[in-house]
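Q: What residues go here?
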């Protein structure tokens, strides 16, 4: 197998609390044709190669088609192990990941993933998936209408303007970031008005007018214009402004063009930009005469009533801004260091990313999940709901809003074909030969762009009306009560929620006991432990992948039955109080496109009294193998039967689910005592954890010990799960730690051993996730030891450069000294300059297939077959041989030759290195 790098860096204690304190040829095409591989099991798959030189070696993947710039993070994986996030080239097809990041991971079963979908699926996989595809379903039935409809325009006419301020410099970004925005406000409104701020997601930044070219550059090159992504929410802004809100949508192209360098994907930078704008608005509210014209034309903004709306990576950005406004980040990492003169009442997150899985529990949120999202297709935004459970007081409502048939882009008109100023596309790409039954254009469940954007605007307004205006009449649209806003028709919108007036609940955590079913893991490579087996068609937003191939603390209760009456009992570690609750609310999902799954729900108190509360019916969502449709529906049963039976609702010891359908599957995410109402939210004073990154030089000798920087700020104490990643295997060691400000909750010492041998940088990484009573900002950090030794010199010399046909030509690639890593060097067959050249029929056919992916016919010079071999020199050795296997024929012919050159990663011969010739004579 191919393994990348090894330098002298060793973690001597992953968590102090846990421990008690030869050469293989890789054929690639130098042209744009698809590269071939050798017959060795160590060969890289088609489309992959090792590029770069010296300590700039990279793992490179080239897509056969352009990959649009989007919000989901493109990631390289080796099987279940993540390797890292590559940098995209401007061609939109080439992605490069430093071998420093890859570490010693075996480059086996390489995959490219983005938002849970695979970008490099081998030919034939699609057909295999379709054979087991889910059957299609019709849209869900329309829900009853809610008593009020927030999608109806208000009484105000609106006024629109824009402002542009001096750009700001943000930590870690080389280029300044623009301070530009579009303002839509109510005309003629009196008094201070609440403020809604919109932040767009990660999209292409620049385009060439009159053409189809878009790039991710920043600043935009001459002859191109910036894509106005921030103007894509005018419909939403106009609706809110008609209802009395001042709205502002800010531009973030400068972050989009540079966030590939940010370890957190740009979340902290986006938070800084949001707070820079909020600080300006706070200043303008205090001194209106200093404001730009677009702001002076609007009513004065009330900064004590702020709603943040973020799309995609913008969603993660406004979540971080809400966190940073309550729990300040480390000053060195922050792009805003002034006072917090605003209060964020809630957030709306549209198809958001959440790479850190670190939602803010004490700020209410509504997360819109697009059922046909082709960008953030795993719908990881569900973590903004699930991830808040047990973190703080639980009074903030966190709602998931599943929009059947919506894609990712059409919530922004500047990302919508026919409406956008720059080229744009449907992110859920159509396969003309095999249309998706749920999401292809024209499918009964797929929304039009206009219908989708209208639904988005309606539910943004619903969140504003509940979180900011405090109108509890719109809560049933967001909290799983099963009501619809007619303004969003014909969209089918489903919701579930946690928080608000829900009591303590039955959660699938480590303290629960399950009989008749099983406690399953959201993320686990063992199919016996995982909630969904690896061959599941489609996926679940509840089980979106994080940073590790196995994760503690996330799961569900899985039910699987072949006949009715097989009960599953869930018993928490301590009895649950349902005092004050009106109903028991359960979040349950069943396989997509199934209907009529019936479950009887019963509870038992600590005295052994049992009551059957009622029966619920759960339907699956419309889904296909390309959608994330294993999503929980909220169902409720009243507690009146328990009261009549005399149960002690202060001490409910178990929950029982009994299937009444003939056979089936179901997964219980949680169950809560539910009562109507939306309580006031007072954020708790919590400790905040941030993991830093320390970068050190390897040195030439000796051993130094460094420690991963972990900072705890804020107030109080809480629990955080730390995970240390093994740099060789990717396996994690977890520890649940109590954190307090001013202390070092976890000590991760790393030994760095100096030497004079070439290697790659090595990272020792630590992850953090809040479990209870804490927040996590910078969730990933560690120690990076930089290689400071030059790459060895490489030479090519003949071993056997003259043979009779049927013999084997051999050359040797030599290093001036051994390296601590496997060393890759490409060799190219170039045209001969004198005499006859070996042809494709003069070499062994298998050799040709292995090294060029080519067939002998039609016969052509060997240099015309694009033989470009990447030779591997194993770590600790200095040589590898390159051979050309010839074949004997019955044709009388003159001596023929082949010429070889060492090249760089672009197949250009290395300057100062001779081109060598091998000769093959006739055997007759």
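A:
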């Amino acid at each position: 197998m191919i393994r990348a790098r090894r330098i002298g860096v060793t973690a001597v204690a992953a968590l102090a609390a846990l421990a008690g304190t030869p050469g293989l040829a890789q054929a690639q095409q130098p042209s744009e044709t698809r590269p071939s591989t050798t017959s060795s099991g160590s060969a890289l798959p088609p489309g992959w190669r090792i590029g770069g030189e010296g300590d700039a070696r990279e793992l490179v993947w080239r897509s056969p088609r352009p990959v649009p710039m989007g919000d989901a993070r493109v990631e390289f994986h080796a099987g279940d192990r993540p390797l890292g996030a590559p940098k995209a080239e401007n061609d939109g097809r080439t992605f490069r990941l430093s071998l420093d990041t890859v570490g010693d991971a075996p480059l086996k079963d390489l995959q490219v993933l983005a938002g849970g979908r695979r970008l490099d699926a081998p030919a034939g996989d699609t057909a295999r998936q379709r054979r087991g595809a889910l059957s299609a379903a019709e849209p869900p039935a329309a829900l009853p209408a809610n008593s009020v409809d927030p999608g109806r325009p208000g009484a105000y006419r609106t006024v629109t303007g824009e402002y542009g301020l001096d750009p700001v410099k943000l930590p870690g970004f080389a280029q300044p970031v623009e301070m530009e925005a579009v303002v839509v406000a109510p005309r003629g409104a009196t008094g201070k008005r609440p403020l809604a701020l919109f932040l767009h997601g990660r999209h292409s930044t620049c385009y060439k007018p009159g053409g189809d070219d878009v790039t991710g550059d920043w600043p935009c090159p001459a002859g191109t214009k910036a894509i106005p992504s921030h103007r894509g929410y005018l419909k939403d802004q106009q609706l809110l402004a008609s209802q009395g809100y001042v709205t502002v949508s800010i531009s973030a192209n400068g972050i989009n063009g540079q966030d590939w360098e940010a370890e957190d994907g740009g979340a902290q930078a986006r938070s800084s930009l949001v707070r820079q704008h909020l600080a300006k608005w706070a200043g303008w509210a205090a001194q209106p005469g200093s404001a730009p014209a677009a702001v002076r034309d609007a009513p004065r903004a009330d900064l004590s009533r702020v709603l943040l709306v973020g799309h995609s990576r913008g969603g993660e950005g406004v979540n971080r801004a809400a966190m940073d406004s309550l729990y300040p980040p480390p000053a060195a990492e922050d792009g805003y260091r002034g006072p917090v003169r605003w209060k964020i009442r809630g957030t709306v997150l549209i198809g958001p990313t959440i790479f850190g899985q670190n939602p803010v529990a004490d700020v209410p949120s509504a997360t819109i999940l697009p059922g046909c999202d082709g960008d953030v297709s795993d719908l990881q935004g569900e973590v903004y709901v699930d991830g808040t459970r047990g973190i703080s007081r639980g009074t903030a409502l966190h709602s998931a809003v599943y929009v059947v048939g919506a894609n990712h882009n059409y919530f922004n008109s500047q990302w919508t074909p026919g409406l956008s100023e720059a080229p744009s596309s449907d992110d859920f790409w159509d396969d003309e030969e095999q249309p998706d039954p749920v999401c292809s254009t024209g499918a009964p469940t797929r929304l039009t762009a206009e219908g989708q954007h209208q639904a988005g605007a309606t539910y943004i307004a619903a969140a504003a009306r509940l979180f900011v205006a405090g109108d509890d009449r719109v809560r049933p649209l967001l909290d799983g009560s099963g009501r619809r806003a007619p303004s969003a028709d014909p969209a089918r919108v489903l919701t579930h929620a946690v928080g608000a007036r829900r009591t303590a609940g039955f959660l699938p955590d480590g303290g629960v006991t399950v009989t008749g079913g099983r406690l399953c893991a959201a993320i686990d490579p063992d199919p016996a432990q995982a909630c969904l087996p690896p061959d599941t068609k489609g996926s679940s937003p509840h089980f979106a992948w994080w940073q590790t191939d196995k994760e503690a603390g996330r799961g569900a209760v899985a039910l699987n039955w072949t006949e009715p009456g097989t009960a599953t009992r869930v018993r928490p570690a301590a009895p649950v109080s349902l005092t004050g609750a009106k109903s028991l609310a359960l979040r349950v999902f069943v396989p997509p496109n199934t209907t009529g799954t019936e479950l009887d729900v019963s509870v038992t108190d600590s005295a052994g009294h049992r009551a059957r509360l009622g029966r619920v019916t759960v339907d699956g969502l419309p889904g296909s193998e390309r959608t994330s449709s294993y999503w929980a529906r909220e169902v409720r049963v009243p507690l009146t039967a328990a009261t009549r039976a005399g149960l002690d609702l202060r001490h409910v010891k178990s929950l029982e689910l009994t299937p009444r359908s003939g056979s089936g599957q179901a997964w219980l995410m949680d169950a809560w005592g539910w009562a109507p109402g939306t309580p006031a939210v007072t954020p708790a004073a919590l400790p905040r954890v941030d993991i830093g990154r320390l970068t050190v030089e390897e040195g030439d000798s000796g051993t130094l010990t460094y420690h991963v920087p972990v900072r705890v700020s804020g107030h109080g104490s809480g629990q955080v799960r730390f995970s240390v990643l093994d740099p060789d295997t990717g396996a994690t060691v977890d520890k649940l730690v109590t954190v307090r400000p001013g202390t070092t909750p976890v000590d991760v010492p790393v030994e760095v051993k100096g030497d004079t041998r070439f290697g790659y940088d090595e990272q020792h990484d630590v992850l953090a996730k809040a479990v209870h009573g804490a927040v996590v900002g910078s969730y990933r950090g560690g120690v990076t030891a930089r290689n400071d030794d030059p790459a060895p010199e490489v030479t090519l010399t003949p071993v056997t450069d003259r043979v009779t046909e049927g013999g084997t030509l051999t050359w040797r690639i030599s290093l001036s000294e051994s390296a601590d890593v496997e060393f890759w060097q490409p060799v190219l067959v170039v045209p001969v300059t004198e005499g006859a050249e070996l042809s494709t029929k003069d070499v062994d056919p298998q050799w040709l297939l292995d090294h060029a992916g080519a067939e002998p016919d039609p016969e052509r010079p060997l240099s015309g077959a694009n033989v470009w071999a990447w030779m591997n020199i194993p770590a600790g050795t200095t040589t590898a041989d390159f051979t050309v296997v010839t074949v004997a024929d019955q044709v009388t012919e003159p001596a023929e030759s082949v010429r070889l050159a060492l090249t760089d990663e672009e197949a250009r011969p290395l300057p100062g290195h001779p081109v060598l010739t091998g000769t093959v004579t006739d055997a007759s």
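A: Context that may help when evaluating the design: The chain is about 10% helix and 30% strand. The first helix runs from residue 16 to 19.
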